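User: I'll paste a sequence; please echo it back and then give the predicted structure.

Assistant: Echoing your sequence first, then the prediction.
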Amino acid sequence: MSIGLIGRKIGMTQVFDENGSVIPVTLIEAGPCYVLENKTVEKNGYQSVLIGFQDRFKNVRKPQKGFYDKIKVFPKKHLKEFRLNDNSNYNIGDQIRADIFSAGEFIDVTALTKGRGFQGVIKRHNQSRGPMTHGSRYHRRPGSMGACADPSRVFKGKNLPGHMGMEQRTMQRIKVVDVRLDDNLILIKGSIPGFNNGIVYIRKTIKK
């Protein structure tokens, strides 16, 4: 278990490797993040580090303002707790930047998927439509519910229309193409969940 970063998805572009091959990459503004709290086994029952990302200039409640005034850190918009086996190397107020990752290593990225609103079963569950000819009376509807007098209910898990997207997803073992510390940027290979300017959470991969 290792420390991670809170970042902001900027968008996608492409870069060239040393062989001249094109690599599609996603740009992430990774940090700088600040250590806000250290949790210990003696006090909390486990060890972790709470970090914050992006300054918050308004809508800071008095209890929150008192917390930040006490640790002498400017209020942050986004917070994330990372569990660690040993958090003795991190002190309150320490800055964590993109250089905790390096080119060539693999990371896990967690984010909210894009919201698609209310969608039907064809888009939401990849079902097939019925015949579009006149008189078929079945085109894009959900289909049979599969129940009659007995059991007189729809079984749980039935694929139906509803809200699609805005779900937390984690992509594992994504390769870091480049780390640009001067711009606080991490370039990772391929795409990741979420919309541009959305918040993402990055940590070293749990897969070997």
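The first strand starts at residue 4 and ends at 16. Helices lie at 41-44, 62-71, 121-125.
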